[in-house]
Design goal:
InterPro entries: Metallo-depent_PP-like
Distance between the termini: 31 Å
Protein name: Metallophosphatase
């Protein structure tokens, strides 16, 4: 049986993100290799991964090389740094699916790059990226940025169980 994973904001090839977000890497090559290892340590070939944007700052060939090394069937929801490139560019780079808009998963989870407006009366959860080390308060938001999760994708069950626990707590 395959698993479903979520992650965002790898910023492959983005040297300045190491300082911007105090990432624990000495250089961009170490960052890229470490994030590929972390991904493949949990994601199997038959698994599905939703990447919620800001995947790579590299050219198409270097991006293709990274995508091809990552396990799983990969769906990209375009982030603010991805939108300068066309949907077909990202498909050519190796993603299996690419969405320019948020997606709804299991009729309850809104998957988006930027956090969406959610009022406290809405029963839904917005799984998002974009804000890196920051965190929105409340049970309606789940920040999947790599900085919060040791640069490793999380399973749907990990997110679901975390949301259920926070609602009970």
């Amino acid at each position: 049986m395959s698993n479903v994973f979520f992650t965002s904001d790898h910023h492959f090839g983005h040297k300045l993100i190491i300082d911007f977000e105090s990432r624990p890497f000495t250089d961009v090559e170490q960052m890229n290799e470490s994030m590929i290892e972390s991904w493949n340590a949990v994601v199997g070939k038959a698994d599905k991964v939703f990447h919620l944007g800001d995947f790579s700052f590299l050219g198409k060939e270097a991006t293709q090389t990274i995508v091809s090394r990552l396990n799983g069937y990969k769906t990209l929801i375009l982030g603010n740094h991805d939108r300068g490139r066309s949907r077909s560019w990202w498909l050519d780079a190796g993603f299996d699916e690419v969405s320019e808009h948020p997606l709804i998963y299991k009729d309850f989870f809104f998957l988006s790059h930027e956090p969406m407006y959610m009022n406290k009366h809405m029963p839904y959860v917005n799984v998002h990226g974009h804000i890196h080390g920051q965190k929105y308060e409340g049970k309606n938001y789940f920040n999947i940025c790599v900085e919060h999760w040791n640069y490793t994708p999380l399973t749907f069950e990990q997110i679901r169980d975390s949301v259920v626990v926070s609602e009970e707590g």
